[in-house]
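Hey, sorry to bother you again with one of my protein questions. I've been staring at a protein lately and its backbone has me curious. I owe you a coffee for this, so here goes:
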Amino acid sequence: MIKRFWHVILFIVICGSLAGQGDIDPQDRIFWRNEKSVGPALNADGWSIIYRDLRQFKPNQRWFLEGSIEGFKHPKEIKLSNYYFQSPGTFVFGKLNSTWTIGAGAGYQLEIFEKHDLGGVSVSWFGGGGATLLFAKPIYYKIYIPLGNGYYTFEEQTFDLTIHQPLDIISKASFFKGMDDVKLYPGLYTRTGFNFEYSRNDRVTHTVEVGASLHAFTKTIPIMASDDNKQFFPSIFVGYRIGMILDPVNQRGLLELLRKQPAE
């Protein structure tokens, strides 16, 4: 009896899943597909936001241009707070610079498995690379300075490993403190991976993306006050992308594509 019950449940689940799928309406479907998409990603050593403009040149192949903003962190970053002064906020002891990059590049995308129905998933491989520019902004901290006889003051200073201790730091100063001292580090990057597009709308894309990347700079990037700062940043990532499919034969604006079609 129990076995029959689970067989019925399994049958209902399978049938429901199949019923949820269906061929995309050929009147709505775009067969020659350009795409514009943007999305965030979490990297093993930071974060990124990537905009990508894809142009189809063969039935299952596209080339693309992309732009990105990415942030990097050191594996030894540990957030602390000053419990002695009970100061709000946290800081990373020993961190010298906040770092982020602006990059631009090009690449190629190959569709491996095509999506044939509304409940399907298309799988594509992509690879590309380009140039990147890293910004390193010095971090300033509010430092406890004893004056003697029970008096003290606070000063905004950059970190010095030879004199500063965790209890000397009250908190970080304003993020904009140190903008005049930003240093630039040019470099190159490459990125590859797979994306899984699962949207039920043929003009809007929802994509999960996983892959690996490598950023290489002309010099070692001084993120922490330690000897293990890096010049090369290999990483794995997982991200989400949302985009819009544009028909190169019959171009339509983004606002028009997003507008709800009237019911017949």
